[in-house]
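Margin note from the TA: students keep mixing up input and output lines. Inputs are the sequences; the output is the structure of the whole complex. Example:
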Amino acid sequence: MSLVLGSVVLGILSGGIYALMAVGLTLSFGVLEVVNIAQGMFVIAAAYLSYALQRYWHIDPLLGLVITIPVMFLLGLVVEWSFIRRLKQDRVMLSILVSWAVALILEGVVGLIFADDFRSIHSWYVTATVPVFGLYVPDIYLIGFALAVVLMGLVYLLVYRSRFGAALRAMVQNREAAALLGIDVQRISTLTFAIATGLTAAGGMLFGAIQAFNADSNLDLISRLLIIVILGGMGSMGGALVASVGLLVAVNIIAVTWTPNWSTFFFFGITILVLVFRPQGFFGAPAARKV
Amino acid sequence: MTSVKVCCMQYVIAEGRLLGGRIGGHAVGAGRKCAAMTAAPASVTIDLLIKSDGGGILLSIRRQATTAMFALTASSLLIAGCGTAKPAAQAAQKPVTIGTSLSLSGDFSGDGKSIEAGYKLWVDQVNKHGGLLGRKVKLVVLNDDSSTQQSLTNYSTLIGTDHVDLVFGPFSSPLTIPAEQIAKRYGYLLPDPAGGAPSVFAENYDGYAYAKPASVPHNLLGLGNLLMSLPASERPKTVAYATSNDPFTEPQLPPLRKELEAAGMRTLYYQVFPDETPDLQPEALAIAQTHADAVVLGTTSVPQVQAFVQAFAQQHYNPKVIVATSGPDQGSAFSSALGVANTEGFLVPIAWTPTANSYQNKQFIQAYIAKYGGTAASIPADAPDAYCVGQLVQELVTKTHSLKNADLIKALHANTFQTVEGPMSFQMDGAPAGTHMFLVQWQNGSTKIVWPKDSQQASLEYPKPAWH
């Protein structure tokens, strides 16, 4: 397989993983009007959880998701109850500040427990590969992409094929009207934030398996996740997936055919262009707050 | 503590009282009146610097003040300072304060903490033997969070506000440049363990000293000599290079490339990647597809090396030779990140090894293990780098019988200094005058010197074994 084609394959697979990490961010904004800057730190905290389960209790990171997803879900409940539901006005702006504070608190706690040393998650499927026309596709990327498709599919079903989802969508259309119809708006909000946080368990495990991390890694990660969500359209789950895959493929192609320096420039340059000429993202205003 | 600087005049205030300061380069002790205060300029600049302890906040307020304001402020300061003078005898007994700014958090925290360990060890040792000129040494460490801006702030605070006697350098060239600018402004000696990039020497400050046996562009040249020592039929034929755009790593590759190409080793890949790139899969994939015999990585950290190795292993690509500029020199941090099996055959240029027969090396190792535990093999390379800085200053002070930075700077260029990394001397821009570096290879879980020949502890393991 040619170098370019190989880069495209790896770009698609890693794009899926980044989309999984970003989906919670877009869900929070779409439903709650909360720009959750702590999303990157949630991913890193989940990576540490997977690392700790494997390191100290010898639990395989994939199997460990049975534990880490509920733990992260509970963390989401606590954060929503403690901070997010207190925001009654100007939620978008205030949520940026509040979630940034949450990220700093979490970063401090994680730093205290694990220090600043870089960690990584090891398992047989991290280095194992599947040969595809001369390219060795790492199992971890295939697993990650599959996990992203499954989990994002489940979220889609939850939003569009369940009573909970119907209530949620009603709330997105008109929060006050939904409350007047008897929908428990507060409960839906809490559960949505907790689900968005719970999803970071899978993203964190994958992130920790594909690259070394420490608590500081959240800063770079959140900037990338925000770019993905901005390009896709804040609140658009499908947009996040398309933007993530598109960006990673483009970045990889530029890196192998031209220079890695320009691939990074492209990543941030395209964001500036989109913000100037299409601030609502690729999926436009009508889709901007649809989940 | 607050520093108030009025043009060329500077005062240190704590809890609203003047402790001391400088006017026109002359120290003003607390309670001393100074004639310079009466010569108030028509318009002055007042800086208020609120001290930051690393990750904290720097509040800088700059305002133009009128003569009246100046006079009022200056008078208030002098009045507030009256009665706080310390006896001369007490001042003579106070410790020699050495300030430094280190990356105790952020991207360079691994190296920063190792540097801190080396500095503290030297302070322990020098105090155990009577200190500097009979005075105990006290080390003040501020955290720069791996930020160039914070490095600038910290050295401004240490020198301009805290008036430390001496300063030691930070970790890595990007953070050294602002430190060097501040040291230059105040005329302080800046001995440094990790700022070897050409951009640091471009400042042309004679008070700067990169405390290493050789400057950065010489680091990898040993590899060229080593490969040329192989039988012609066995030498690598092709080479792939990838380097971070970091000012420490990037200058190391071109001299080696030139040397290897002159010896007939073709370059199949040469790319520079941004240091902050989190995903190195595309670069690693491109290198793997060249099937080059040798790989030269200009990496700045263990995670970068790990990212390349993971991708190479995934692509079943096993070069015969692989060298990295940084990462494999981090002892157990490197082997635990890659797994001991995958360290086998990795090469890295270093200035220090536990087995080198250099000045006080045995004492350093014994003291390090006694203080921090572990083994000689697990000592990270940054610790002896930092220790050298202390040794250099100690020799300078001993030779000059002075703690004045001007005296130390003058002596810096007139002498050769013995350190755990071997003898060192310095050019006027701070670059080391020597070219000696070791090339070590990971073999059976520890590093062995494979170059130069006269220090060789093991033969080159060639080709290196496949990844696990």
